[in-house]
Amino acid sequence: MMSDSSRRIRMRAAGLLTGTALLAATAACGSGAAESAGGTGGAGGGRPEVTAALYPLQWLAERVGGGDVTVIGLAEPGVEPHDLELTPAQVAGLEKTSLVAYVKGVQPAVDEAVEQHAADRGFDAATLVKTLAAEEHAEEGHGEEGHAEEEHGHEVSYDPHLWLDPSRFATVATRLGEKLAAADPARAAGYRERAAKAAADLTALDGELAQGLADCASRSIVTGHEAFGYLADRYKLKQVGISVDPDAEPSPARLAEVAEVAKREKVTTIFTETLVSPKVAEVLAQEVGATTAVLDPIESRPADGDYLSAMRQNLTTLKKALSCP
């Protein structure tokens, strides 16, 4: 029999849900500059051009490439990257770029464009590390044939948010250095040196997270969007997500299920995200008597700082929410 709590959250959720790269030259994510520099020689005196599909890979390409490459980001800051639609100029640029760094399954438009225009120059980070299986939830607004593997509308059998595990991302850094060294032998030593430094910084970050999350009173994180599987896997946390897809409407049944878990495990914080509406998470938090806090999946450039500082802010947020010493 459905509890009064489950019935209340079903009713409230139902009411809410029905009511509610190597391209051309760049400045930050500069699409205009990208259109002006063309070709793999670029405007930088023969520098390769790297096109990065989303911010974490843009950050990594800038760290590994240094001044020897031109890095172009396809996704604008502050914009949800999963729904990216490429302009004709961006698609044309993929035919000229030296390398396209992406994670298959995050941005369907990029996946398709790489397959059609840059298949021999794609650098898919998901092929370089051990991936985690995507979660599945019944009744998540996908219809009868919908499955969790349809991450953001594109079929993948894994969770693509691998950059949230710095140890895996360190592997990507090393492999990117090797890829650039092979493509541009004259500057190979610099690529390898910077890749080693980036990997070392990521390894240090991994150590900070492992130490900071080792002895927490709680180990369950309830999130609006199941983007944190790699972080949870690496640091022995339990992710309980309301939705696999931030664009999908979680069913009242799923919300009631998560509420029951949150109450049983005495969860005190429901995590929202920077680019996703917090309304559903706020309804859940009110139902279970919890507060909300922002946990950043770093899918877009942070308003302040960079990937490393955003991950450290996530650590601070988690330590407070999970009562870590």
Secondary-structure map:
Elements: H1 4-19, H2 31-36, E1 49-52, H3 55-65, E2 70-73, H4 88-94, E3 99-102, H5 108-117, E4 122-124, E5 132-133, E6 150-151, E7 154-155, E8 158-159, H6 166-183, H7 188-212, E9 220-225, H8 229-234, E10 238-243, H9 252-264, E11 269-272, H10 279-288, E12 291-294, H11 307-321
Parallel strand pairs: 1-2, 1-3, 3-4, 9-10, 9-11, 11-12
Antiparallel strand pairs: 5-8, 6-7
Helix pairs in contact: 1-9, 1-10, 3-6, 3-7, 6-7, 7-11, 9-10
Provide an overview of this structure.
The chain is of the alpha/beta class. It folds into 2 domains: 49-132 and 158-208, Rossmann fold (3-Layer(aba) Sandwich), CATH 3.40.50; 215-322, Rossmann fold. The chain is 42% helix and 13% strand. It has 11 helices and 12 strands. The chain has helices at 4-19, 31-36, 55-65, 88-94, 108-117, 166-183, 188-212, 229-234, 252-264, 279-288, 307-321, and strands at residues 49-52, 70-73, 99-102, 122-124, 132-133, 150-151, 154-155, 158-159, 220-225, 238-243, 269-272, 291-294. The strands form 4 sheets. Strands 2-1-3-4 form a 4-stranded parallel β-sheet, with helices on both faces. Helix 6 (166-183) packs antiparallel against helix 7 (188-212) and helix 9 crosses helix 10. The longest helix is centred in the middle third of the chain and has 25 residues, at 188-212. The chain is globular, with a radius of gyration of 21 Å. Keywords: Signal, Transport. One of its GO terms (biological process) is cell adhesion. GO terms for molecular function: metal ion binding. Belongs to the bacterial solute-binding protein 9 family.
